[in-house]
User: Fold this.
Amino acid sequence: MNTLYVTSPDSYLARDGENVVIRIANEERFRVPVHNIEGIVCFGYMGASPQLMALCSERNVALSFLSEHGYFLGRVSGTVSGNVLLRRRQYRMADDKNTSLQLAKICISGKLSNCKTVLQRAIRDHAGTINKTAFEEAIQTLNNKTRQAFNAGSLDILRGIEGESALVYFGVFDQLILANKEDFFMKGRSRRPPLDNVNALLSFAYTLLTHEVRAALESVGLDPYVGFLHTDRPGRPSLALADRFVLSIINRKQLDGKGFKTLETGGVLMDEETRKEVLTAWQKRKQEELQHPYLNTSIPVGLLPYAQALLLARYIRGDIDNYPVFINK
Assistant:
């Protein structure tokens, strides 16, 4: 569950035996045994030695490179893991429109259910501070969209339902922000670039989650670049919701507006200290426990991508009749 985040842009990654070493200006600043980590995420890196890359590949440690501002640049991975027959079956299923549609229906329905849960919790916990009527209407719309998703006749229709649902969900998202409204507010979802502090946080959290989802899928032998819904957009792995994490660190006042800056283009970026705060909170969140409804056991949040990847692999192999999407309560 341990991920090493390298945020200093002048860091250089090297290998010393079975250790990952970080150097700045030729001075060693940090080292960790490679067997103690599952992944390395580098922001604005100076570089990494070929020996370090080889070590990560040999030990199945995911090594991802991101720009200073969190945009994914590339990833180093070793030999293909898992049974080749599993990937061949994955490719065949992704090429079959009916099979892709059935699996995509399950995933989108689960996504909408998790969005609905976020809104229902807001009514339960903060009914006096939100527009309850607007939330109830949004929940009802998401209920209707979930039923439509189950009955969608094509992937194009399903993608349309997904987009319409996102507009409804993010239409009330600003009311979920309960603290420091001067610095944290949201008028809608914006990407590339994010146009406010909240969107900057959401994009950053989704980037972190992307790294872990990729690693989880590859760890069970699946190809993270072959999807069942966005098949026309290779290289875009599906993401789970990181919204609740972002809301929690805002509402707990763990951040303030001083850590964000607006560029001439209108895009909003976090500074290095704010990224460190978010990464620390992210690691703590991964250690928290949740009850998995299908496995009927408590697991750390950080293992959720791996649990779902295992279940997806079992479904693709035919070991279980359907893919049990994760529904948060």
